[in-house]
């Protein structure tokens, strides 16, 4: 039986933004963190070093989760280094906005590759490899409820993630593994802020009753709840962490 201080968490897309905040929070909570990145080696290494300097345990793992072989290799590396994996946080994702009419094949294919196939690849490995009592935390988005124009392809991939979340929770019956999704609203990350005029950012910040953008740490707190002992009775759910925007 693993203790909290010996549990291992893989965080995908962890080099920056919400993924970096999640990694830092889980490390503070006692998890050994595998900081996954696709191409951003320097920030991933810097994050792992900062976690270690603060007394935590972390290693980096390069893998493009849209590639099944690379995803399997990442899990194997974690098992070799630490003996097993207890938590998967599926944070990696892309968001490129266009109306459905203006979305070309490349935009569609890239979203499917990273947001959908990437999540599927990690879920498949987790379903086979996660130690009993583990946790899977996927990332959806509150756009599945807001359904704004230009978010069609992105929202479709996140709706698919929510469906797989509930189904995998049922498929893992008997292993005491919970599977949930977190669906952030507008959050102050590079992914969200890039390309948006300040007026648009200000407008979105005011939409929620709490009248601010989410911060990466707000989302990390929700992930930590689901990964920790207090979240043990939450299973098959999507939690909208959005300040009440919907």
Descriptive notes:
The protein is of the alpha/beta class and 246 residues long. The protein has helices at residues 17-28, 41-53, 68-82, 105-129, 143-146, 152-171, 190-193, 198-207, 216-227, and strands at residues 8-11, 32-37, 57-62, 87-90, 135-139, 178-184, 238-241. The protein has a 7-stranded parallel β-sheet with strand order 3-2-1-4-5-6-7, with helices on both faces. The mean pLDDT is 96.
What pattern of helices and strands is seen along the backbone? EHEHEHEHEHHEHHHE
| Helix/strand class | alpha/beta
- Low-confidence runs of at least 5 consecutive residues: none
Question: What is the top-level CATH class?
Answer: Alpha Beta
Give Rg in angstroms: 17 Å
**What oligomeric state do these chains adopt?**
single chain
Q: What is the helix fraction of residues, given as a range? A: 40-55%
Give me some keywords for this one.
single chain; 246 residues; alpha/beta; Rossmann fold; 7-stranded parallel β-sheet; 9 helices; 47% helix
Topology (SSEs and partners):
Elements: E1 8-11, H1 17-28, E2 32-37, H2 41-53, E3 57-62, H3 68-82, E4 87-90, H4 105-129, E5 135-139, H5 143-146, H6 152-171, E6 178-184, H7 190-193, H8 198-207, H9 216-227, E7 238-241
Parallel strand pairs: 1-2, 1-4, 2-3, 4-5, 5-6, 6-7
């Amino acid at each position: 039986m693993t203790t909290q201080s010996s549990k291992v968490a893989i965080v995908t897309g962890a080099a920056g933004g919400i993924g970096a905040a999640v990694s830092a929070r889980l490390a503070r909570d006692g998890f050994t963190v595998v900081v996954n990145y696709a191409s951003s080696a320097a920030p991933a290494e810097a994050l792992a070093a900062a976690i270690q300097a603060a007394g935590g345990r972390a290693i980096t793992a390069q893998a493009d989760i849209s590639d099944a072989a690379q995803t399997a290799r990442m899990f194997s590396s974690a098992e070799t280094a630490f003996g097993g994996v207890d938590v998967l946080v599926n944070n990696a994702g892309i968001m490129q906005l266009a109306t459905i009419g203006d979305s070309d094949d490349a935009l569609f294919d890239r979203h499917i590759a990273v947001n959908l196939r990437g999540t599927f690849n990690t879920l498949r490995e987790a379903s086979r490899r996660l130690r009993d009592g583990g946790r899977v935390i996927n990332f959806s988005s509150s756009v599945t409820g807001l359904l704004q124009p230009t978010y069609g392809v992105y929202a479709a991939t996140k709706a698919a993630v929510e469906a797989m979340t509930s189904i995998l929770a049922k498929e893992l019956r008997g292993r005491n593994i919970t599977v949930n999704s977190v669906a952030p609203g507008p959050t102050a990350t590079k992914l969200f802020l890039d390309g948006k005029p300040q007026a648009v950012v200000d407008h979105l910040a005011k939409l929620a009753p709490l009248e601010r953008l989410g911060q990466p740490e707000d989302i990390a707190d929700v992930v930590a709840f689901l990964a920790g002992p207090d979240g043990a009775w939450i299973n098959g759910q999507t939690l909208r962490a959005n300040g009440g925007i919907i």
